[in-house]
Amino acid sequence: MELITPGLGLIIWTSLSFLLLLAILSKFAWKPILSALRERETSISDALASAEKAMADIQKLQADNDKLLVEARAERDKILREASAAAATMIAEAKGKAETEGAKAMDIAKLAISNEKQAALVEIKNTAAILSVEIAEKLLRKELKDEQAQKELVQEYIKEVNFN
Question: How many independent structural domains does the chain possess?
């Protein structure tokens, strides 16, 4: 039975040893252990706060990146629209200029052709008139060698003048 119920001396010595151990531990070990636990708790809470702050910063950066991406896409679309409009304007201007210059060239060519045609007609008329005068002169000289022929010609011209 002695094994189940301890003796009074054993209880006193065990209690005294426990209290002594408790006093030594509280003087030397508990303060460093508690301060280490507090430091660990503080470092864990700081790490959690830093992680939350980092997560908030990441979310903010992600939102900023998304905003910048949207702005960049809008700017790209705007630049593409402006470039398309500028290209269309340049093409229209070039087409208009080409049509204008083509029309001018056609007008100049038509004027030159008309001038050349008029000059050719004048030259043909002059040449025809000169040839007609020369032929008439030769015919008149040939036909009007005698006096009778001259009188007949005059009479013939008089008849023609009366009918016209």
Answer: 1
Domain membership flag for residue 1: no
104 falls within a domain: yes
Each residue's pLDDT, cut to its tens digit, for the chain (164 residues) gives 566 777 788 889 999 999 999 899 888 888 888 888 999 999 999 999 999 999 999 999 999 999 999 999 999 999 999 999 999 999 999 999 999 999 999 999 999 999 999 999 999 988 888 888 888 877 777 766 777 777 777 788 778 776 54
pTM, rounded to two decimals: 0.41
DSSP the chain: -TTTS--HHHHHHHHHHHHHHHHHIIIIIHHHHHHHHHHHHHHHHHHHHHHHHHHHHHHHHHHHHHHHHHHHHHHHHHHHHHHHHHHHHHHHHHHHHHHHHHHHHHHHHHHHHHHHHHHHHHHHHHHHHHHHHHHHHHHHHHHTTSHHHHHHHHHHHHHHHHH-
